[in-house]
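ok so I'm stuck.
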Amino acid sequence: MEDPALKDFSENFHAQINAIAHSHGEGAMKEEIFVEHMGQILEENGELETLTLCQYHSRGARVDGYSYDDDFKDITLVTSFWSGDADTSALSVTNTDIKTASNRAIGFFQKALKEGYTKIDVANEAHDLARVIWECRKEIRRLKIVLITDGIT
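replied:
not stuck anymore, here's the structure
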């Protein structure tokens, strides 16, 4: 049975993302806006210092944002699983989806450790992330993966 409060929340949340995308004009990426919005929530709740957006998708590697705590040498990679569908009955996120998304974020980290940042276009914000990972690879104490989704697990 569908929870009416969850349904209302989902509809309002997606309407808010759509309104922000509309205000940014044609070509605004709803998923990027979702990541930015969720990043603000994570920052406000002390889960992240500051989220830096960086969309990077390649075979076996994906990251949508990151936060690096220079004091503690912790890095948090944020990846998203965005459906864009406000219908809560269609928002199921499986354990396989979660594992795949997490593995792609780990894949980005491993790729940055192995290849550095030279394989990522300098114009892509993920180039800076890969550079941080490469330059701090011996100092990084902890890697945390945060999966954000508009789905239900």
